[in-house]
Write a structure and sequence with these properties.
Length: 68
Amino acid sequence: MIRVEGHKNLYRDEKSGAIINCDSTGYSQYKKSRHRNQSQKSEIDRLRSEIDEIKSLLGEMIKKNEYK
């Protein structure tokens, strides 16, 4: 593989011409960041669902009080 000029972790495959990133530390950081973002997104989705449920219950309570 041939090192790409100006980039310490990038190499060009001689056969295919593809650029290959050999920065395993950066890749590990990317995976951790992605996992953290997915966890945050699922937590936000869960909270939204709970808020929708609370709003629905409040709406039902208001309707019951209107008919009294």
